[in-house]
Every structure is written in C-alpha cells, then in structure tokens.
Design a protein that fits this description.
This protein has one domain: NADP-dependent oxidoreductase domain (TIM Barrel), CATH 3.20.20.100. Helices cover 40% and strands 15% of the residues. Strand 5, helix 3 and strand 6 form a beta-alpha-beta unit. By secondary structure, it is an alpha/beta fold. Helix 1 packs across helix 2 and helix 3 crosses helix 4.
C-alpha cells in the first residue's frame, strides 16, 4: 500500500520518481508559481512538472532555488515542444530550457507530443542528452501504443515515462497494460478532469471515505500504479491533493471508478494533433 507522499516509483533505469507531483500548466504569474511551489514543498511534494510551452521554466527555477529544499531532493520534469522537434532543434531547445530552469541536470525530459514523423530524431537527441548526463531519465508524453511501438523499434533506450491524459472518463486500459508490460511508467496529466468531478459515483465513494472526489481520483491513480501531477496554485488545495495516503480504495470501488470510462478527452487527441 502506498502510505506516504515520500513514496516513489522506480523507473526502468533505476531512477526514483515521486508518485505525486505538482503540475504548473497555465501558471505564468511569477508570484503564483513561487507560492504554489513553496506551498507544495512545505506539504511534502518533491516533484514539479513544467514544460517550455508553459512559459514558466524561469519562474519554476527561481522557486525551486528559493524553496528551502536541496536540489538533490527535488524531481524536475520539463518537455520539448512540438516546433522544437528534430535532432538539432531538440538539443538547442533543451539547452534553452536548462538555462531558464537554472539547472545543471534535469530529472526527466519528455517529448511533449508525438506529432507525425519527427519524434524518432527527437528521441535520438534525448538519448545523447541522457548518455552525456544532462538528464537523469527520458520519456514521452501523449504517446499511444503505435507511437511507442515505432519508437522502441527504432531506438536503443526504452522511454522511462509516458505522461498522458488519464482519469476516470479516460482510463486508457490498453495503454496502461502496454506500458506496464514494457516497463514504462504511466503518468497522468489533467487527473482531475479540469475540475469536472461532478460524478455521482465519485461523490458517493468520497462520502464513504470522508474524502473529496478529487482525493478519490488521485488515490485511484496511485492504486493503478500511475504517477499523478494535479495542478493547483491554491495552498489549501495543494495540501488537500496530498491528503490521500491515509486510506485505500477497495477493489469494488476501483472497478466502479473504472466503469466511468467514456473515452472522453478534455485535451487534444494525439492522433489528430499533427505537425
């Protein structure tokens, strides 16, 4: 049973990744970034997820330097954006991200979206960065099974992480099973369905445990072996999202939440976001 915010997943290269992290998508105000990260760190979070596309890497870097926790205790993820894909462009874009973050080493670097045909060359750049020690782990985001099959066949290093939209309305069971089989850690973005938690089943299950629907969904993530990174800038909500380690959903409740699946996306379909 996962019983602590200090619990972590072990990636396929042995790197330890916290099971709960803070996402900072759409957080661009420097004060909001700093307050959110400081509140998260004080609550016990050690993982922060950003991206070049979020336009807040510099603010994240400043916040982690001022948060009072040693750099080596933190796990920082960033991502390469679509227009920066390709071997040479990826290397240049990563260097810019690294400078903005003010970090010597990034813990996890992800390809933000697969697109059509550049991600193999992008991954070659990732492998170079990994071998040279600039990143501790490399992975992908929004990759479907066919993307992963093609990438693995053409590459030397299997992705450590696949970060995808994953929540009770989009359970992606085949992808979850595939990633477990391949030793790829699945990670959930938008786990709280962008606030669309008004589901009777979630409310009933939450009442049973004395929790909120959001806490139930985050616990459901963890019990599926999925790393989760809810986004919030509100200290009380950041703390609430971390208060999920003192209960465990029954198998019946897990199945009931699984049954809410509607294959409904709040974000883009990776097979339609082509570039």
């Amino acid at each position: 049973m996962i019983v602590s915010i200090q619990d972590y997943a072990v990636l396929n290269n042995g790197v330890k990744m916290p099971r709960l992290g803070l996402g900072v998508w759409k957080v661009t105000d420097p004060g909001d970034v700093e307050r959110a990260i400081h509140a998260a760190v004080q609550t016990g979070y050690r993982s922060i997820d950003t991206a070049s596309f979020y336009k807040n890497e510099a603010e994240v870097g400043q916040a982690i330097r001022s948060c009072g926790v040693p750099r080596e205790e933190l796990f920082i993820t960033t991502k390469i954006w679509n227009e920066d894909q390709g071997y040479d462009k990826t290397l240049a874009a990563f260097e810019e991200s690294r400078k903005r973050l003010g970090l010597d080493v990034v813990d996890l670097l992800l390809i933000h979206w697969p697109g059509k045909d550049k991600y193999i060359d992008t991954w070659r750049a990732f492998e170079k960065l990994y071998r040279e020690g600039f990143v501790r782990a490399i992975g992908v985001s929004n990759f479907q099974i066919h993307h992963l099959d093609k990438l693995i066949e053409a590459s030397e290093i299997v992705p450590a992480v696949n970060q995808v939209e994953f929540h009770p309305l989009l359970t992606q069971k085949e992808l979850l099973a595939y990633t477990k089989e391949k030793g790829i850690q699945l990670e959930a973005w938008s786990p709280l369905m962008q606030g669309n938690l008004d589901q009777p089943a979630l409310k009933e299950i939450a009442a049973k445990y004395g929790k909120t629907p959001a806490q139930v969904v985050l616990r459901w993530d963890l019990q599926h072996g999925v790393v989760t990174i809810p986004k919030s800038i509100t200290p009380s909500r950041i703390a609430e999202n971390a208060d999920i380690f003192d209960f465990e959903l029954t198998a019946e409740d897990m199945d009931r939440i699984d049954s809410l699946n509607r294959n409904h996306r709040f974000g883009p379909d990776p097979d339609q976001l082509l570039f």
